[in-house]
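Quick one - inputs below.
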Amino acid sequence: MLANAILIAMALIILALVLNIWRVVIGPDITDRILALDTLYINAIALLVLLGIHMTSAAYFEAALLIAMIGFIGTTALCKYLLRGDIIE
Amino acid sequence: MLDIIISIFLILGAGFALVGSIGLLRLPDFYTRLHGPTKATTLGLGALLIASMIYFSSRGEVSLHELLVTLFLFMTAPVSAHLLAKAALHLRIRSEVDLPKDEQSKP
Amino acid sequence: MSIVKRLLPHPIFSLVLLMVWLLLNNTLSAGHILLGSIIALVLPWATAGFWADRLHLHKPGLALRFLLLVLWDITVANIQVAKLILSPRSKLRPAFVHYPLDMDNDFAITVLAATISLTPGTVSIDVSSDHRTLLVHGLDVGDEAALIAEIKSRYEAPIKEIFGC
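Output:
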């Protein structure tokens, strides 16, 4: 029951990842690509959490937390760059 | 019984994440696309983390640290949405409706 | 009283720091409680110089109720947004709305903006330089005035009451 649910959930998330990559490729604007990458990292965290449950290992939690932090900083830095032309003022 | 609850949360969470990504792909302009990921995907991940919390807690030791990722995402999602929208407005990205004037533009 | 105040300039911040430390280590052992308490005492003191104006939680009970209301709204809103995303696109009525603010505290405005971003089909984009209006983008806006009235009564009024501004 649970094993099947995990597999179905993983399939849904992987489909979501493919859709995100598609949006990264077709754009059309730079902000669309950043938004797609932002969604991509959140979905990657989801995949990691599912893997953690699948393998019954808490080790994936740290990776999820790190991706959450670095992903957010990445999005912020890119937006700042678009807004101001540089990142560190 | 617990398995059923965890499974429901897993499918629901993954479903919402997928809906967010579908929204990202098929909504007409950037400003509407912004709505999918900031809400649906964040809530989807929240549901997945609740499932993970129940799962690891049911195996003996109480595990609440997934709460931290959830909280972090719920705090950062509005911030990145706000920054992206601001950047898009600054760059005058095309919209279905008329754009309001940009206060950030420098002369 | 004054010693307590000097040791704990931000009691809620300290409590949150201790909880985050314990969650991060996923434990309740005495050693980590001690270490977390030290961090919770030292960090607010070390960063005191960077804090802007202080805001007091006037009504913690109301804040908790507000948090639950927002969580519930997020869930309901997501089902609505999911329906909008999966329905034919001609049903969408996106619009930019200028929302007039009734408060001028930066922190309270930030809380309101974050709440708006997380709930039903609305994202807050920008605050005007005089802190009087908030630019909001709605995914499906039928009636601008109704949207403004709803945000005002449902979210802004409780936030104003919680922070007493």
